[in-house]
């Protein structure tokens, strides 16, 4: 990475950011690629990086309709954890967490990955039974996970209202110390820079508007800059997955919903872990800059607008104030929304499709950021080999025919 002296910084501040070196190229699309990835979010960029790095496939294009990381990747609240209930999901998310642990070094890019721990609160006896079940399942899978008492929780988060006065008193919680947060857009930029350096073409401001097939196999994509040929196309477009599938004559079991988040004005450090409550329905962490980063569940209606409804904002802030009464005095700075693609079992789809050469990686819903490196890693292997990576196999579209669903509603819920 380029370093500047104090003088260099002043010079660059005054020259209006002119003549800065590009971090990645801005290539003209070639006529044909070995693999086309549609969608330049974290998952698409990670896929391209691992295709080049692990499988030596460098004749790859990432086609992005906007700018890299401009979708959910840079709109999420950045929670990373792997404490899912079922083996299939736990293995996939733990694979991702292990990759996160060395990723800044691998990409030589500071992703600000901070393992500050993730706390899930329990407010009822049933919550606590579910927590104990999930923690036991996690430990059987070798995942760091603990059951905490109310006193443990209060010690960990002094500002949290653990009194009996609370409408839903805290009865305890689950705690994953290796969980945490990362800087979301840095993840996209880190993968983009590394993929570009390996020869991948990152093609921005280019929308895929059609998927061309011949004799039941994909032969390329129609874009706003013309046709680009490829016999292997991986669609990684999150909330737009249904739209892309329709272009290929397919129907996916996903629904697109707005999901909102908010940040407050920056305040002094008061919260050094991530706190989530499925029951009160809100979650919160504090960024390194000092903002409180807040979110909750999806807006109930389907939609493609990257914004959300007022009732959800009101409900979310009511939940935060219920947990942290003192935050009622903090002003909110910004609010935004993304479009998440939710599956009936709250698990992703990483799969081939009935169209030969056409693959989808989608359905991550409210919780795909944490999976970014793992998702890209297993999807790259799936595209390179033409059949599913062992960790991706349970997440095939076929599960919606076979009934082998992996119900992670308990571990997903409001807890992204
Ligand atoms: C408010 C909010 C909070 C969240 N919080 C968390 C969290 O705390 N932890 C967590 O793990 N997950 C969280 N998530 C979910 C997470 O953000 C997503 O699951 C993840 O970022 C998906 O990454 P992606 O690369 O698949 O999608 P995206 O980043 O959305 O990338 C898809 C890209 O495809 C592009 N695209 C779409 N259609 C086309 C087309 N036709 N042609 C070309 N390009 C196209 C889009 O422009 C976009 O850039 C949150 C999401 C939101 C919205």
Structural notes for this entry:
There is one protein chain. This protein has helices at 6-14, 42-55, 87-107, 125-140, 150-156, 184-197, 241-247, 310-323, 372-385, 399-402, 409-412; strands at residues 35-38, 60-63, 79-80, 118-122, 146-149, 172-176, 180-181, 201-203, 208-214, 217-223, 226-229, 233-235, 255-264, 274-277, 282-286, 292-298, 332-342, 349-352, 358-362. The two termini are 32 Å apart. Helix 2 (42-55) packs parallel to helix 6. The strands form 4 sheets. The protein has an 8-stranded mixed β-sheet. With 416 residues, it is of the alpha/beta class. A hairpin with a 2-residue loop joins strand 9 (208-214) and strand 10. Bound molecules: flavin-adenine dinucleotide. The site of flavin-adenine dinucleotide has 40 residues, from helix 2, strand 13 and strand 17. Residues 38-44, 63-66, 70-73, 75-79, 207-208, 236-238, 240, 244, 259-261, 295, 338, 340, 364, 366-370, 416 line the site of flavin-adenine dinucleotide.
């Amino acid at each position: 990475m380029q370093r500047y002296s104090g003088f260099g910084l002043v010079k660059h501040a005054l020259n209006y950011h002119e003549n800065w070196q590009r971090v990645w190229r801005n290539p003209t699309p070639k006529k044909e690629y070995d693999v086309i990835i549609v969608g330049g979010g974290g998952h698409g960029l990670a896929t391209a990086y691992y295709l080049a790095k692990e499988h030596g496939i460098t004749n790859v294009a990432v086609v992005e309709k906007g700018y890299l990381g401009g979708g959910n990747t840079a709109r999420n609240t950045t929670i990373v954890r792997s404490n899912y209930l079922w083996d299939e999901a736990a293995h996939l998310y733990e694979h991702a967490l292990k990759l996160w642990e060395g990723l800044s070094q691998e990409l030589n890019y500071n992703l600000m990955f901070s393992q500050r721990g993730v706390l899930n609160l329990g407010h009822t006896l049933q919550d606590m039974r579910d927590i104990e079940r999930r923690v036991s399942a996690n430990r059987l899978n070798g995942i760091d996970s603990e059951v905490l008492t109310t006193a443990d929780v209060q010690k960990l988060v002094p500002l949290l209202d653990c009194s009996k006065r609370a409408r839903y008193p805290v009865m305890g919680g689950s705690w994953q110390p290796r969980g945490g947060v990362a800087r979301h857009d840095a993840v996209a930029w880190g993968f983009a820079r590394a993929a570009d350096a390996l020869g991948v073409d990152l093609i921005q401001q280019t929308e895929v508007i059609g998927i061309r097939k011949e004799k039941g196999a994909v032969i390329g994509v129609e874009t706003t800059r013309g046709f680009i040929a490829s016999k292997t196309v991986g669609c990684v477009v999150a909330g737009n997955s249904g739209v892309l599938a329709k272009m290929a004559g397919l129907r996916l079991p996903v629904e697109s919903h707005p999901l909102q988040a908010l940040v407050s004005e920056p305040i002094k450090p008061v919260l050094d872990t991530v706190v989530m409550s499925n029951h009160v329905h809100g979650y919160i962490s504090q960024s390194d800059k000092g903002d409180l980063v807040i979110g909750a569940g999806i807006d109930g209606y389907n939609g493609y607008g990257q914004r959300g409804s007022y009732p959800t904002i009101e409900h979310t802030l009511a939940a935060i104030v219920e947990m942290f009464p003192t935050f009622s005095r903090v002003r909110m700075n910004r609010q935004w929304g993304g479009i998440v693609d939710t599956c009936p079992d709250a698990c992703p789809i990483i799969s081939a499709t009935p169209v030969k050469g056409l693959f989808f990686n989608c359905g991550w819903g409210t919780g795909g950021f944490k999976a970014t490196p793992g998702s890209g890693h297993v999807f790259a292997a799936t595209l390179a080999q033409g059949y599913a990576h062992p960790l991706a196999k349970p997440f095939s579209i076929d599960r919606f025919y076979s009934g082998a669903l992996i119900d992670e509603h308990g571990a997903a819920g409001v807890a992204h």
